[in-house]
Amino acid sequence: MDILILLLPLALLFFIMSRGRKQQRALAELQSSLAPGQRVITTAGLHATVVEVSDTTVVLEPAPGLRTTWARQAVARTVPDAVVTDASTLTGDTDPDGPEGTERPQR
Questions:
Q1: Of the four, 19, 47, 84, 97, which is 20 to 30 A from 66 by CA?
Q2: Which CATH number describes the domain made up of 2-82?
């Protein structure tokens, strides 16, 4: 019983540490694979596009023509490609009035 009391906290500590190492490796891999054109979010919450990458810094463009330089470690994650929100792009319907013979609901 005494061994179980000792092993349980050690096992918990091992799992916590291994998860933290896995997250650190994933973040380091992300930061080393940055390339121009990627959309990213910094640790400060800035959403921007990567313009230029060097060994220790990255140049981000949060708005057209506005460029800022950040440490590579400030990049927290990449933003996935935009989700389609307009149903007409899914169906190929480019007519704003809808298909012939149907009425669009009034807003």
A1: 84
A2: 2.30.30
**Which amino acid is residue 80, in one-letter code?**
P
Q: How remote is the C-alpha of 22 from its chain's centroid?
A: 17
Q: pLDDT per position in the chain (107 positions), as tens?
A: 788 888 888 888 888 888 889 989 998 898 888 999 999 999 999 999 999 999 999 999 999 999 999 999 999 999 987 654 554 555 555 555 555 555 555 65
What are the sequence ranges of the domains in the chain? Answer: 2-82
Under 8 Å CB-to-CB from 50, ≥6 apart: which residues?
Answer: 34, 35, 36, 37, 38, 39, 40, 58, 59, 60, 61
Cβ atoms of 72 and 80 closer than 8 Å: no
